[in-house]
Amino acid sequence: MPRVSIKLAKCIYLFESSSGFCLYGFMKKILFLISALFILQSCSEDPTIQRIKEGTFNNCNKATVGDLADNFFAYPSWTAIAATDGRSYVNLTGEMTFEGNAVDALVQFTAPMSDNAGFEINAFEMNNLPQNAFMVGALVTAMCNEY
Predict the structure, then answer these.
(1) Both 52 and 74 in a single domain?
(2) What is the C-alpha to C-alpha distance for residues 46 and 44, in angstroms, rounded to an integer?
């Protein structure tokens, strides 16, 4: 049986001579650059989220809000949103245990508009059910005590 060998071109030229512009090498560089920019963009976090994560609760200053959330919630996720009321908020979602049962939690913070601005918990929900101010306080206390 005869041997068949296939030789692939390493370069596709835009011009007829081989001294022209190599499209393959150029496309490889562009693809690498686009991939690098995408990775760098996805790694950067919204500055509003960073401000809240690096802040502390008034009643619990032994750890940052980010550290407390990472310790208390399973699979914590942070999202900055612009609401229909024109204000900005940061949502923290994750799984927590309440009365022995796993529940999905949402903690919504008011977004600080500058580096030195404060923030507060605007809303707290468990399994999509809004919780009252007493439960917000109990959540912060539980997060602090568990740390």
Answers:
(1) yes
(2) 7
